[in-house]
């Protein structure tokens, strides 16, 4: 019902601007402007802020190196508060009023569902959204949609495999705590698919949930406490504020479980807030990541750290800003390949020509006509009691 409502809204938004020109017009002589709709207010504002930092740092670095065929890169960011209806208004403003060349880093799965029909209708580049939702990963892929991050299904599957094969936890001892929206459903789909491989009927899995954009976790905590004797682990598909409260309530009541979460939780905030409560609160906590540790010393990460120090010296390395920075650099490679004769179609063709690009993160990344997801790599991490994160081998 929720997905149908969002799709209806998106189609209604299309109807109010039927005459809008296609977004395949060439870039201006001096500038290439991209738009971002993300939360810069509300409970998820830290995600938006960090994502914007990563993109802006990459753009500034490219601009100081001469830009792209003489053009400077510019980012216009619009606050949507993680509200799909506000995302529609933000995207409409960026496309119709600001005439952005493409959309980058749009945050949220339900938000993507709300604007994707509009974006595709206008042949607008929708690049590296902060979402692992399946609707952004059609087979064959939508021509104008390119993802950097692996899907939530891939992350959830990696977590299930880790719990069962590394931690030796029985599938029947795993519960799920999820956000009530497309994000939660996408993660749950990955959990269910993997559990079937271990002959566990997903219908028998204990699932608890919380409403989107809230920290209303009390009922979920109550159900998990009641079932704690038969459980060993909880897979969380949550953002950081409800995740922190959920873990805090259960740990405080003496429930001893392994907690895991997908990368969309904002790991730094999760680790810091739980560490502040005491060392026991970060015990047995795994967070999957789609980028390496932002404090590591690989070639790409060192360049990211140097760029961050140069252009945003008050910021520290962060998983979310690193994702924005890496995704931006792949886009920049595509822009370079498209050259002076730049429009949406030439850029899409250029992005699809990027194969096995070595960025220095330990894996090659790239696209193709049938592959619009740059990476399928999942890293495992665990917050340390003293701060920061350690790598966890998932296999």
Characterize the structure shown.
With about 400 residues, the chain is an alpha/beta fold. Helix content is about 45%, strand content about 15%. The chain is built from twelve helices and 14 strands. The protein has helices at about 1-15, 45-65, 85-95, 110-120, 150-165, 180-195, 220-225, 240-250, 265-275, 300-310, 320-340, 345-350, and strands at about 30-40, 70-80, 100-105, 125, 145, 175-180, 205-210, 235, 260, 285-290, 355-360, 365, 380-385, 390. A hairpin with a 5-residue loop joins strand 11 and strand 12. Helix 5 crosses helix 6 (about 180-195). The radius of gyration is 21 Å and the shape is globular.
Low-confidence stretches at least 5 residues in length (pLDDT < 50)? 1-25
Major beta sheet, strand line-up: 7-6-8-9-10-13-14
Biggest β-sheet strands, sense, barrel = 7 strands, mixed
Mean pLDDT: 91
Order of helices and strands: HEHEHEHEEHEHEHEHEHEHHHEEEE
CA-to-CA gap between the ends?
38 Å
Portion in helices: 40-55%
Count of separate DSSP helical elements? 12
Strand content range: 15-25%
**Helix- and strand-based class?**
alpha/beta
The tally of strands reads: 14
- Shape field: globular
């Amino acid at each position: 019902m929720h997905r149908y409502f969002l799709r209806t809204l998106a189609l209604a938004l299309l109807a109010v601007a039927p005459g809008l020109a296609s977004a395949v017009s060439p870039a201006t002589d001096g500038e290439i402007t991209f738009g971002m709709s993300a939360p810069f207010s509300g409970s998820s504002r830290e995600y938006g802020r960090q994502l914007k930092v990563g993109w802006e740092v990459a753009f500034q670095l490219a601009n100081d190196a001469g830009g792209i065929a003489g053009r400077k890169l510019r980012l216009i960011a619009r606050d949507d508060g993680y509200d799909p209806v506000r995302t529609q208004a933000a995207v409409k403003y960026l496309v119709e009023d600001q005439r952005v060349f493409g959309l980058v880093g749009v945050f949220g799965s339900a938000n993507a569902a709300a604007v994707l029909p509009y974006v595709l209708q206008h042949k607008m580049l929708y690049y590296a959204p902060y979402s692992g939702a399946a609707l952004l990963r059609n087979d064959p892929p939508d021509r104008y949609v390119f993802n950097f991050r692996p899907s939530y299904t891939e992350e959830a599957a990696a977590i299930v495999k880790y719990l069962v094969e590394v931690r030796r936890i029985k599938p029947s001892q795993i519960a799920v705590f999820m956000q009530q929206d497309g994000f939660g459903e996408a993660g749950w789909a990955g959990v269910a698919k993997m559990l079937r491989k271990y002959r566990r009927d997903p219908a028998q899995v204990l699932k608890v949930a919380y409403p989107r954009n809230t920290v209303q976790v009390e009922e979920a905590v109550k159900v998990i406490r009641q079932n704690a004797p038969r459980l060993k682990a909880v897979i969380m598909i949550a953002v950081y504020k409800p995740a922190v409260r959920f873990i805090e309530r259960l740990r405080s009541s003496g429930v001893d479980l392994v907690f895991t979460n997908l990368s969309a939780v904002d790991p730094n905030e999760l680790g810091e807030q739980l560490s502040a409560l005491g060392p026991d609160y970060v015990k047995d906590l795994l967070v999957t990541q789609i980028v390496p540790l932002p404090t590591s010393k690989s070639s790409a990460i060192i360049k990211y750290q140097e760029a961050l120090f140069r252009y945003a010296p008050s910021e520290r390395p962060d998983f979310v800003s690193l994702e924005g920075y890496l995704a931006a650099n792949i886009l920049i490679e595509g822009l370079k390949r498209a050259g002076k004769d730049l429009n949406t179609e030439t850029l899409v063709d250029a992005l699809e020509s990027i194969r096995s690009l070595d960025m220095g993160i330990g894996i090659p990344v790239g696209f193709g006509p049938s592959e619009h997801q740059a990476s399928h790599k999942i890293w495992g991490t665990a917050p340390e009691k003293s701060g920061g994160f350690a790598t966890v081998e998932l296999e």
